[in-house]
Every structure is written in structure tokens, then in C-alpha cells.
């Protein structure tokens, strides 16, 4: 891990110094992993390539603000996850992800508990929606990168079925050859971690009221 971080830091230094070959080296190092990540969710190679290209452009635009405190891989996956989310939203496929950790539903619907309202029912400003999307994309990207690093492919496949495709728990369990309880556990773990990561960002309570409605 330390060696990878050193390689990444060297790449960033070269790119910032104007080394034209460094950008090609960065793409060669990460393009395959990002494509695999997007391909597994879209099954559309052309769209996947466009999203990954947009992610690299997004990284280049944000480079002046990148301080290296986050691992480069995690940072790239965060940007890519945001671009993927944006693509799905444009196609009308972007899932709403309320931040309740309730995992007992097998309907495939991600409903909030108690008095919390579904995200779709709340009138939100453009700025607030942007903050939400950025926070969600970054948090999900961090989790995806961590699970990939740890080889948690079953968990990744499960969350793809539940979140991207909206598959009910029972169907997801059948497809993956696991129990409904395992699916429910994966969902609970995902939402719990998502809540934790977003809370750490210190955003205003008005941005994610779901986080504070227990």
C-alpha cells in the first residue's frame, strides 16, 4: 500500500510539472479498474468509456485542489462514482438512497423509518442537491474502492443489484446464491457506513435531515 501511494504521489508531481507522459501513465494505471467498476453497473461499454473519460477530466480540473491527503485511487473512484450517478440520473435510473439503516424490508424499496420523509418528497434547492450528490458520490466511491481493495466482490454485486437495479432482497439472494438475511446484512452495513461517512463531513443538518431523524 505504501509503495502504491509513493507511485501515485510521483505521478501527481510529474503531471503538475508538465510531464506529458505522466498523464498517459496515470490513465494506464487506473483506466482498467475504473472501466471494470462502471461496466459492472451499465453493461454499456461505450457509455462506460465516456464516464471514465469524464472522470479523468474531472480529476484534471480538480488537480489544483488535490492535496494528496486522500489516496489517489479512492479520489478517482469517488469522481467516477459521481459521474456514474450523474449518468444514471440523466437516464432516469438514479436511485434515491435514503439514509435509514433499516434492513428488514425485502421489497427492494429503501424507505425511511419513523417520521423521516422520502428524499423525493422534499423540495430542495439546486445548491443543496449538489451538496447531497457530491457527498453521496464521494462516500459511495470510498466504500467501493475499499471493497475492491479487500476483494469483497459478493458485497459489491449485492449492492449493485439493490441500488442500481432496484432488485428486491429475495431476488438478489437467489441471483447471488446467498440467504435473504445475508442480503439484509449487506444492506444494513452499507447504509450504516454511508451514514457514518457523510456525518464525518460535517455538513449542515439541513442538507441531510435524514441523518438526524432517528
Task: Please describe the topology of this protein.
Layout (H helix, E strand, L loop, with lengths): L1 H15 L3 H23 L2 H18 L9 H19 L35 H25 L2 H12 L4 H8 L3 H20 L15
Key traits:
214 residues; mainly alpha; Rna Polymerase Sigma Factor, Chain: A; 2 domains; 8 helices; 65% helix; 0% strand; globular; transcription regulation; sigma factor activity; RNA_pol_sigma70_r2; sigma factor; RNA_pol_sigma-70_dom
In short:
InterPro entries: RNA_pol_sigma-70-like, RNA_pol_sigma-70_dom, RNA_pol_sigma70_r2, RNA_pol_sigma_r2. With 214 residues, this protein is mainly alpha-helical.
Descriptive overview:
- With 214 residues, the chain is mainly α.
- It has two domains: 93 residues, Orthogonal Bundle (Rna Polymerase Sigma Factor, Chain: A), CATH 1.10.1740.10; 120 residues, no CATH class.
- It is built from eight helices and no strands.
- Helix 4 packs across helix 5.
- About 15% of the residues have low confidence.
Q: Could you give the count of β-strands?
A: 0
In terms of structural class, how would the helical and strand content be classed?
mainly alpha
Quote the distance from N terminus to C terminus: 38 Å
Tell the overall outline: globular
Largest pleated sheet: none
Q: Give the assembly state of these chains.
A: single chain
As a percent range, the share of helical residues equals 55-70%
Strand content: under 5%
> How many independent structural domains?
2
How many H/I helices?
8
Radius of gyration: 18 Å
Low-pLDDT stretches: 94-125
Mean pLDDT: 75
Following the backbone from N to C, one meets helices and strands in this order, namely HHHHHHHH
Amino acid at each position: 500500500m505504501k509503495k502504491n501511494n509513493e507511485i501515485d504521489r510521483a505521478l501527481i508531481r510529474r503531471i503538475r510539472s508538465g510531464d506529458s507522459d505522466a498523464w498517459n501513465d496515470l490513465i494506464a494505471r487506473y483506466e482498467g479498474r475504473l472501466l471494470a467498476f462502471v461496466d459492472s453497473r451499465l453493461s454499456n461499454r461505450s457509455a462506460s468509456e465516456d464516464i471514465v473519460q469524464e472522470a479523468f477530466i474531472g480529476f484534471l480540473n480538480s488537480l489544483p485542489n488535490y492535496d494528496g491527503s486522500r489516496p489517489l485511487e479512492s479520489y478517482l473512484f469517488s469522481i467516477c462514482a459521481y459521474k456514474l450517478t450523474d449518468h444514471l440520473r440523466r437516464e432516469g435510473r438514479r436511485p434515491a438512497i435514503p439514509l435509514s439503516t433499516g434492513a428488514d424490508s425485502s421489497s427492494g424499496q429503501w424507505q425511511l423509518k419513523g417520521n423521516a420523509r422520502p428524499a423525493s418528497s422534499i423540495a430542495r434547492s439546486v445548491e443543496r442537491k449538489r451538496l447531497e450528490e457530491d457527498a453521496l458520490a464521494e462516500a459511495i466511491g470510498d466504500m467501493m474502492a475499499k471493497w475492491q481493495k479487500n476483494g469483497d466482490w459478493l458485497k459489491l454485486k449485492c449492492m449493485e443489484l439493490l441500488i442500481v437495479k432496484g432488485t428486491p432482497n429475495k431476488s438478489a439472494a437467489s441471483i447471488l446464491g446467498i440467504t435473504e438475511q445475508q442480503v439484509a446484512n449487506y444492506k444494513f452495513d452499507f447504509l450504516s457506513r454511508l451514514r457514518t461517512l457523510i456525518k464525518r463531513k460535517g455538513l449542515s443538518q439541513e442538507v441531510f435531515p435524514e441523518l438526524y431523524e432517528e
